[in-house]
Structure formats: structure tokens, C-alpha cells
Amino acid sequence: MRDVAIIGVGITKFGELWDKSFRALITEAGTKAILDAGIEGKDIDALFVGSMSPGRFIGQEHIGALVADSSGLHVMNIPTTRVENACASGGLALRQAYISVASGIHDIVVVGGVEKMTDVIGGEATDILAMAADQEWEAFFGVTFPALYAMIARRHMHEYGTTREQLAEVAVKNHDNGLLNPNAHFRRKITVDSVLNATMVADPLTVLDCSPISDGAAALVLAPLDKAKQYTDKIVKISGSGQASDSLALHGREDICTFKATVEAARQAYKQAGVEPKDIDLAEVHDCFTIAEILAIEDLGFVKKGEGGKATEEGRTRIDGDIPINPSGGLKAKGHPVGATGIAQAAEVVLQLRGEAGERQVKDAEIGLTHNIGGSGATCVVHILEVV
Amino acid sequence: MRDVAIIGVGITKFGELWDKSFRALITEAGTKAILDAGIEGKDIDALFVGSMSPGRFIGQEHIGALVADSSGLHVMNIPTTRVENACASGGLALRQAYISVASGIHDIVVVGGVEKMTDVIGGEATDILAMAADQEWEAFFGVTFPALYAMIARRHMHEYGTTREQLAEVAVKNHDNGLLNPNAHFRRKITVDSVLNATMVADPLTVLDCSPISDGAAALVLAPLDKAKQYTDKIVKISGSGQASDSLALHGREDICTFKATVEAARQAYKQAGVEPKDIDLAEVHDCFTIAEILAIEDLGFVKKGEGGKATEEGRTRIDGDIPINPSGGLKAKGHPVGATGIAQAAEVVLQLRGEAGERQVKDAEIGLTHNIGGSGATCVVHILEVV
Question: Which of A148, B8, B142, B201 has the least C-beta neighbours within 10 A?
Fold first, then answer.
């Protein structure tokens, strides 16, 4: 397998973008990534796109062809593939694109992630997202994602003494980071008190513990490392890629406070990259709910099991902490257009490693990690990126 | 890239299977493929699955995790990926699985295709399938797939003198083949007259020119060629894999009588395999409508452009003809559970190349081809398989 580099990134504003269509968003992100890489359409060998449920959100499947068409690349009959694994669709599209370049079957590949979620009303969006859970054994009985993560939070509090305030600190920190990100869905400061006193969604999670329903897209350009310098000097290498599964339903697991898919995907990625958790300078993790970020930093090995809440409270995960988590604002503040999330995470890490993250720049960042979850942890994709 | 073999196949009955769920179907096909390959669960490195619109057909996304879970493989945290490109989802899942083995990232990979289409009523199934067309520029204005293919048929008749009877001959031949396939959705003989006099769907296509709404699943086991013999003696090599796109909407093309995505995908596959159309002993092509099979045999180079109707009428595409097409019965008679189709095509070719196709066996078959289309030709995936 060949080494693979990311040579271009593009991202749209995330938010309630009623004036932009699905195809407009993905085309905007892709065009930005292509311009950033300094390539032209004729250089592109293949497209991959991650999207969770365009069939329900916008009444369109066959997204691979749609993206080729909307970007004009169908004229060259470029192969295009959609990948779906719920909210891990973007991360998994990146992994498929990575494998296709590493294998030698393609050279220059564009991979995008996109979701247009605000064209349906809130209740329907919740129904659609519930399709990432086990429809027959969870969603059918009325369990929504906030409810599943609330159960995880309650158990984590019981097992490890994690406090309600520690959960809130995740949201406060990610909103502080989002203030520094021009593309973030939410750019306003919140406090622990405002999280605690916000509308209850599923006890103990209030609405400020939950990531929003967002529209948006992000894209990357991949190339074989040995050819990357032909196009640009801004090269980041994909040094590790891991993927794992777990039971679709939460009740199928021995322990709901550890996501085994995260542990296994991270093990693969660390091994391939030849690094350990302590070598990671920053990480973009899947904070769909505040408790999810606490699980993530534990399962990725940044802190000991059960100490995620404490580490957050102590400020260790802030941009100036010893393990900066979600400098972009994360899903919580940057927004969570589900299919775009995994690609947007990688886009943020690339910008950080290139020293182009502006006010939210993590100092001396050389190795970064992305962590993208599908459902309540049934899919996990982890990538490790390094400055070349 | 390593050579890749198919070492196991499994297929369910296709039809209106109201007593079998989506997860039961894919698990049945996967289990059959695993048993056929002589492997065990612990040998499997990854799963891929093609499915077009489970989000609309059964209210479930996150299909990769669902399949791992329903097959019990989540216990080993096996990575699972869903691929979607409309009715080419199965063929494209096979291509991703192939690339993952060829790259060296995985050894033993199971790839399945599945769709459960009969849990919604007919009109809704048509709406769901229309999401493979351009929703904003075709489906929104009331154009359904039979209508799109009817326009292609009318134009083909105008350009090349293809007759209504020649279209019907495709259906008659495929029903004759389906009679010989125990898993086929339809196992009854039809005649040219019965096709011509059936209920009109979209002029000139009657209901007997159209493939049915079916439930079903199919699966394959892939392995590196040099390790395949460890597991089984029944080895077929994937010698070529091609994929291409075209405009999503039919109106975006210069010529609707040629699917450029087919021509380009076939060019790639022939080149990789080092063979020409005349070397192919049999093909499973995407006959979602009778006109589609005529386009396919022309675009794949089996006959000259415009002569597909004549070749069919002359019996050249029958099991005992010089280029047997769809010995399984094709989408028309075997059935068309859309996500399963591309995998089922490969399963049929493998059985033919192994000499295990029973009454429908093509004599001396050594090289076979599969041709899987998404939408009205916006995606095409072609594979060439050879006896080792």
C-alpha cells in the first residue's frame, strides 16, 4: 500500500442554510478543496461522498452520481461512490477514498461529506436520525438518540462519579472554541449554568448538551504522497486509518460506558501510524452529546477510563490544554450535518497541522486525530494525520 | 495490487418474501456464502453491503452495523461499510470490497447486497425508486423510471429500427431462463404476444417489459488469490473491475441510446482483464427494462450499436446462443431487489464458471461479465470474472 496525503480542504459554513441546496453545498465544498489543492477537474480520478439519509432528508438517493453531475465531473465519466454508516458516513467515505489511493487504483481522489437536514421539521429530523439506531429494537419503542446517550450519561455518572457540571463543561468549552471558528453553526458563549438550566431533552441532558440539526458540507483532496508535491506544498499525511463495529442496539453490549468500536478502531490507527495517545497534539472527536466527548477521550486513551469528566473540568481539553479536543467547536458548536461531520473533522485537523487555524490554532500541532461515530457507537472510524 | 478471488457465493430466493425481514435475508445470504467458502466467522476481516434505500423501504439506515449485528460478527468488531449508488449499490459494494482486498488492507471480506421492497405499497415503491433519478429535474415533474426507459426505447426504435417485438423477445428469453432458476421471482413462460398485450406502463413498455419489485439478498466471499486455495478449490478470479458515471438526469446527455458510463466502465474492465467482448462466454446485464438489455449488449460491445434488438430476435443471447445474456433470468425474471442485484449477478456468473448452474448452465463457460446500472445509466459498474 502506498502512503496517502491530503492536499486540499474545503468547508462550507455550517448552520440552518435554507438558501443553499444539498447539491450547492457539496459543490461549494468540493470546489474549495480543489482550488486549495491547486488541481483541475481533469486531474481527478474518482469521487467519494458520505451522506447519511438524503433519501429521507431531501428525497434523493444515488448521491454519487448527483455529486459528479452537480460538479460537472460526469462529463469525464469519473467514478463516484456514496458511503453510508449513519453519522460516521463522512469518516468512512474518507477511509474508502484513502484505501482507493493506497491501493494504487486511483491517484487523485476527492472525498466529500454532506447533509441537508433543515428542509424537514424538527420531529421528522429526530425520526430520521433514529434510523441510525436499531429501528426494530430501539427506535420502534420510542427511544431517540438523546435518550440513548442520556442512559450512557447516567451510567457513567453512577460508575465513575462524573458530575452533571462536568458534562456541561464539554459544551462550554466547545462553544468557546466555536466562537473562534467563522464556519461554526453556533458562535455564542454559554456557561455551566446556562447548560444546566436549559430545556431538558432526556435527563440528565439538556438541549445545550446536544449537537444541533445543521446543513453543511466539507471536502478533501487525496493524492499518493510521492505525487503530492506536484500539486501543492501544503501536505498532510494519513498515517493511520482504523474502523470497527459494535452491536447496533445499545442493549447488545456488556458495558455502555466504553465504546468498543472506538477502542478497536483507535488500536488499528495507532498501530499503523506507530504512535500512542500521548503523541497526539489535538483531536476532533464525535461529541454529538456532551457525554460522547467524555467517552471518546477515555476510549481513545487520552485519559484513564472514568476521568474524562475530571479532565474536562480541569481544562486539559481546551485549546491551550495538554490534549486539545475539538478546537473547531466540535459537533456541539461547529454543527453536525451528519454526513459532513467526519470530513469536517479531518478538514479541521489538516488546517491545524498546516498552522492555518487562525484564532483557534493549537500551538506546535504536528500529529492530529479524528474520531467519527455512527449511531450510539455501532460504527467508529479513526484517522491519524501528520505533518509531512 | 493483489489478485482477488471469489471463493464463496450465497443467494436467497427472490420474490415477495413477506415472511422474511431485511436482516433475515442478508444474514441468510451471508451464511450461505460463508459455508460455501468453507470459512468461519473468525476468518473474516471486513464486511461490505450494498443497499439502495433501506431508509425509505424499511425505515433503517446504518446498514453496515445492522449487518454486522444480525450476523453476530459485531462481537469481533469487524468493520462494516454500506455502499449506495441506487440500483448499482451491489456492484459498487463488490468493487469496494475488491479494492479493499486488492490493496492488502483486508484478506477475507464478505460482501452482500440486499433490499426489502415489498413492505411498502406499489406507488410508494415507485416513488422510492424515483430517488435514483434526478429528484429536482426529473422525479419532481412526475417522470418515473418506466417513463425514462420508455423514452430511451422510443428513441432507439426511431434511430435503429428496433421493433416492439424485439423488445418483447428480451422478456420472453429471460422468463425462459428464469424457469430454470429455482431462486427466481418469476418462473412462468411468457410469449411475445403476452408481452405486447400486457397492461401498458409507459408506451411502448408494458408491465412485462419491466422488472418486478422484489425482496432478496446475495453475498460473496472474497480472498487474495494466493490465499484462496487454503479455503476452497472452487475459485473464480476477479480479473477486471470498472466504474464510471454520467449525468444523473437523462436530459444531460448528448445521446440517450448509448450509456457512456457502461462504455467507459467496460473499457476499464476489459483493459484490466486483457480480454475483448468476443472473449466473454456469458454476461449478466442490467435488464431493469427490456430496452436496457438491448442497450447493454450494444454498449458492452457484444453486438454493433443498433443491432441489439436483432441479435435478441435471432436467439444469439439465449443460453445456447453465441453470447448468452442473463442465464439467471436477469432482473426481469429472477427479480430485482435493487441493492442485491449487482451481487446476485456476480453470484450467477461464479456458479456458471464453476459449472454449478444446473439446467441453465452455459456450456464451457470460462470468462463471464457482470454489468450493474444505477438509475438511467448515471452509474455503471462492470466486473469480469474468470475460472482460475
Answer: B142
Instruction: Let me know if residue B31 belongs to a domain.
Output: yes
- Tell whether B131 is covered by a domain: no
> Among residues A236, A271, A289, which one ends one of the domains?
A236
Output phi, psi for B382, to 5 deg: -125, 135
Rg (CA), chain B: 19
Contacts B135 to A, Cβ<8 Å: 58-60
Same domain, A100 and A50: yes
Band (A97; pLDDT cuts 50, 70, 90)? very high
Structural domain containing residue B290: 142-205+239-382
Q: How many separate domains does chain B show? A: 2
Burial tier of B369 (Cβ tally within 10 Å: 0-12, 13-18, 19+): buried
Using CA atoms, how far residue B99 sits from A96, A166, A381, B67, B238, in Å, is 9, 44, 18, 20, 11
Q: Which residues of A are catalytic?
A: 87, 336
Nearest CA in chain A to B91: A81
Given A55, A80, A375, which is nearest B53 (Cβ)? A55
Asked, for residue B132, whether it belongs to a domain, the answer is: no
B100 plus B173 within the same structural domain? no
DSSP-based three-state secondary structure for B212: coil
Report the chain A residue with the minimal C-alpha distance to residue B81: A85
Domain boundary among A168, A202, A236: A236
Express each pLDDT in B85-143 by its tens digit.
999 999 999 999 999 999 999 999 999 999 999 999 988 999 999 999 999 999 999 99
pLDDT tens-digit map of A219-267: 999 999 999 999 999 899 999 999 999 999 999 999 999 999 999 999 9
Residues A88 and A191 in one domain: no
Nearest by CB to B61, which of A82, A102, A131?
A131
In this structure, the answer to whether residues A267 and A325 fall within a common structural domain is yes
Q: Is residue B117 left, alpha or beta, with left meaning phi > 0 and alpha meaning psi from -120 to 50?
A: alpha
Residues B14, B20, B21: CA angle, nearest 5 degrees:
110
Global ipTM: 0.97
Which residues of A fall within a CB distance of 8 Å from B261?
77
Kindly state the DSSP code that residue B388 receives in the 8-state scheme: -
Closest Cα partner for A290 from A187, A184, A190, A165? A165
**Shared domain check, A323 and A285:** yes
Q: Do residues B231 and B244 both lie within one domain?
A: no
Cis peptide before B146 (omega within 30 of 0): no
- Cβ–Cβ under 8 Å, residues A93 and A61: no
Round to whole Å and give the CA distance between B327 and B333: 10
The Cα–Cα gap between B293 and B312 comes to: 9
Q: Answer yes or no: do A114 and A252 share one domain.
A: no
Confidence class for position B174, pLDDT limits 50, 70, 90: very high
Give how far Cα B149 sits from Cα of A165, B74, B203, B209, Å. Answer: 60, 41, 10, 10
Domain containing B375 — which CATH number?
3.40.47.10
Q: What band does A55 get if pLDDT is binned at 50, 70 and 90?
A: very high
- Does one domain contain both B75 and B179? no
Mutate to test the interface with B, among A53, A57, A62, A115 (most CBs of B within 10 A): A62
Q: Which residues of A touch B100 (CB under 8 A)?
A: 99, 103
On whether residue B126 sits in a domain, the answer given is no
What is d(CA B372, CA B330) in angstroms, rounded to the nearest whole number? 11
Give the strand pairing for B215-224 and B109-116: antiparallel
Which helix (H) or strand (E) segment holds residue B111: the answer is strand B109-116
Question: What residues 259-278 of chain A have any CB closer than 8 A to a CB of chain B?
Answer: 260-261, 264-265
